[in-house]
Amino acid sequence: MGCDGGTIPRRDELVRVKQKPEQKDKDAEREFRWRHCTLTQQSLQEPIAMCGMGRLYSKQSVIERLLEKEPMPETAAHVKSMKDIRQLNPTPNPAFTEEDKTEGLLDTRHAPYICKLIGLEMSGKFRFVALWSCGCVMSERALKQIKGSVASTCPLCQAPYSVEDVVVLNGNDEDLELMRVKMEMRAAKRKSSKKDKKGAKKVEVKAEPAEPEEPVASTSKSAPVEKPTTSTKIKAIAQLKRLGAVNAMQDPELKRLKSDFSVAKDPKASDVYKSLFTSHKTEKDQERAHWVTYNPFYN
């Protein structure tokens, strides 16, 4: 019944059974997704960007891959230009120390980023979302609490956003399907806005053609138009000069310069002003001498 030494073997030691597949460490996988670039599998480096599916990237790595024109992996096949990613504005965690930045640590105490609204750490234990319109990052719980009071406005930067702009970061399979639909909605919206802008520019540039002037019907009996000659021009100039000289002689200001001009005959001058001169009627009846030659001893 027993083996050598009196040991009794178990069934699983004698019968070969199908080995169970090795199970992944869920915590380690979660930490890796939130702290490493999806494209290069290296630690995330600022500036951090996301794609329409909610995956995280180092923006520098995406730019280098696009410039080198290398094929993207299957997880990032939808990233074909810089328009397919959006730079994020995460809030740094003040409790994140230099010890937490050391690679290879299994016991990570703090996450590098938090939710600015309610203080939850962005470690993967809580669902986080980002807005495609402005790039602000916050927890899904905070967005749901604030969305009832302030609709369609980012609670961090007050920028407007729509439903398709809310992207779940590192979501599950159901979230990925929803993010794919939202990504298609944003692409359709962007194309329609481009068409509207092009139509508006065409309307502004396009001008209505000017109506051609109707030609006047010419008749054979119409009198010929006389063209001005040099002699007629000289005569017209001489007439203008003569009229100018006549008008100058009729000017009342020029009449005052004549020798026979008298203030007493000026219709515009007042009676008080005329009494200052010897030509006034009161001076004719005065018996004493003029004030210039007046001498009280002799007059």
What does this structure look like?
- Helix content is 32%, strand content 8%.
- By secondary structure, it is mostly helical.
- The chain folds into 2 domains: 26-194, Zinc/RING finger domain, C3HC4 (zinc finger) (Herpes Virus-1), CATH 3.30.40; 232-283, no CATH class.
- The longest helix has 33 residues, at 173-205.
- Residues 218-223 have low confidence and may be disordered.
Index terms:
299 residues, mainly alpha, 2 domains, 9 helices, rod-shaped, Rtf2_RING-finger, Rtf2
Task: Give, in order, the helices and strands.
Answer: HHEEHEEEEEHEHHHHH
Just give the CATH class of the largest domain: Alpha Beta
How big is the Rg?
51 Å
The proportion of residues forming helix, as a percent range, comes to 25-40%
Number of helices: 9
Distance between the termini: 182 Å
The major pleated sheet works out as: 3 strands, antiparallel
Mean pLDDT: 76
- CATH superfamily grouping of the largest domain: Zinc/RING finger domain, C3HC4 (zinc finger)
- In the CATH hierarchy, what is the architecture of the largest domain at level 2? 2-Layer Sandwich
Structural class estimated from helices and strands: mainly alpha
Query: Based on DSSP secondary structure assignment, what is the total number of beta strands?
Result: 8
Family: Belongs to the rtf2 family.
Pfam family, one: Rtf2
Protein name: Replication termination factor 2
Organism: Drosophila yakuba (Fruit fly)
